[in-house]
Amino acid sequence: MMNHPLWQLSLMRWREFRREPEAVFWAVMFPILLAVGLGVAFAGGPDPIIKVAASSASLAQALRQDPTLDVAELSAEAARVALREGKVALAVEPGAGSDVVYRYDDTNSDGRTARMRADRAVQRAAGRVDPVAASDALVRDPGSRYIDFLIPGLIGVGIMSNAVWGLGFSIVDARRRKLTKRLMATPMSRTHYLLSYLIWRMVLLIVEIGVPIAFGALAFGVPVRGHWLDIIVLSVLASLTFSAIGLLIASRGRTIESLSGLVNLTVMPMWVLSGVFFSAQRFPAVVQPVIRLLPLTAYIDAMRAVMLQGASLMQFGREILTLTVWLVVSFVLALKLFRWR
């Protein structure tokens, strides 16, 4: 067994990884740094302070009644300049008579929020009384925060990027340095060579899913409500799928430049469309069927439901079928198209 080609090739994958500090960083540290940065930036909490500009002392005094507004008293022209430069989200100016004019960009969420808060403060300062009394009952349940939404997305991106980039670069670099020609002289089949990459991906998968989940749970209290077996099965299938895609991309490439172009063409649309950093439902309905066919979308949707909602893997037949089809088609094509030189 120790002299079997598949075993020796798998050991070679481990040695290559161990000798590349950059690979360790991208596989282990990068997801953590990304989670820290985005988790702190979107950690939630009280309403954020929004900067606004007022063009009169009376308006500034009224706006300061709202503690979530940072009010700067500026001339009308200076307020418009500050708004145009993005220094404030809203410019409040006196209009004709007792009217008030709100200047803001309606495509900017901060602008819309500032307009609502500013108008509320101005109306109350003018004597408005709410006809219905209201009170707040705050509920902060782990699983509904942005960081909870983010961690499964980062796991999916890590699996995809490490599989496609790691396998693609290793194969093309070996072909470029004529190493594959030497391997052809050994008692090794093409299937053994490609399967060794898939086996190595399974070893690395422990780090790719374990580190982000453990960090999210310890640093931000991200819940894991589903069964670990479901998470493992789903992640193994996703890793095999993206590994097969990486093998297909690298099956004929001869230069790192050509590989980079093909990998970016494959990976970047999924980074944007598959709901890694924000919900894929933000895209128009006409492209939703295409988005649902992407393997990263299938993995992230199922992973979020299992982790955060405690759903069973048996509920995601469509997502599992999507990943399986990508795996089988990509690996079969990779075996047929792969060339040693």
Which structural class best describes the helix and strand composition? mainly alpha
Average pLDDT, rounded to a whole number, is: 83
Counting DSSP E segments of at least 2 residues, the number of strands comes to 4
Strand order of the largest sheet: 2-1-3-4
Count of separate structural domains? 2
Number of helices: 13
In the predicted model, the low-confidence regions spanning at least 5 consecutive residues are none
Major β-sheet annotation? 4 strands, mixed
Structure summarized in a few sentences:
With about 350 residues, the protein is mainly alpha-helical. Helices cover about 65% and strands about 5% of the residues. Strands 2-1-3-4 form a 4-stranded mixed sheet, sandwiched between helices.
Structure report:
The structure is a single chain. This protein has two domains: about 15-40 and about 145-335; about 50-125, D-Maltodextrin-Binding Protein, domain 2. It has 13 helices and four strands. By secondary structure, the protein is mostly helical. Helix content is about 65%, strand content about 5%. Helix 6 (about 145-175) packs antiparallel against helix 8 (about 190-220) and helix 8 (about 190-220) packs across helix 9.
